[in-house]
Amino acid sequence: MTIPGPRWLKLTLLASVALNLLLIGTMAGRYLHHRHEREMRQMPAVARMIQQMPEDARQGMQAAMGQRQGELRQRQQAIREQRRAVAERFAAEPFDRAAAEAAFAELRQRQQDARAIFHNGLIEAVAGMPAERRKQIAEFVGGRSR
Questions:
Q1: Distance from C-alpha of 32 to C-alpha of 21, rounded to nearest angstrom
Q2: Which 8-state DSSP code applies to residue 142?
Q3: How far lies 102's CA from each of 45, 78, 83, 108, in Å?
């Protein structure tokens, strides 16, 4: 199939399509990259704590947390959905203060539920560690090694 018209018009159209595809690819890549960064920032202190542990303790921690990975992912998804619900309440016309307060209350509850799962995993991991290792983790949790 040939497109009628001058050659320069065809080249301009082709360049425009190529540029649009490049921009779409760049935007999609940035979105996915930033989404991953947001997820990783949610628990930076935890990741830092685990990285600083000796290998045997790190493996124990990862095993205990790994058992909760699926549930934690579900909770994080529920938190993201609730954040969208909060945003919808803010954008609603007319603004309904009670609905916005209820949406935030639900968001806090979902965040608390996710924290409880994480905390229980941490307790399980620490329970099997020797006293010296628990002291190291206590210092980190208490803020002395930050």
A1: 16
A2: T
A3: 30, 15, 12, 10
DSSP label of 130: -
Instruction: Encode pLDDT of 82-131 as tens digits.
Output: 999 999 999 999 999 999 999 999 999 999 999 999 888 888 888 888 89
Summarize pLDDT for 22-66 with one digit per residue, the tens: 888 888 777 776 765 665 555 566 667 777 777 877 787 778 778
Task: Say whether 111 sits in a helix, a strand or coil.
Answer: helix
Count of CB atoms situated within 10 Å of the CB of 137:
20
Q: Closest Cα partner for 109 from 68, 137, 81, 134?
A: 81
Averaged pLDDT of the chain: 82
- What b/e readout covers 49-74, taking b as 16+ CB neighbours within 10 angstroms? bbeebeeebeebbeebbeebeeebee
What is the rounded distance in angstroms from the CA atom of residue 123 to the CA atom of residue 135?
13
Domain spans, the chain: 1-41, 44-141
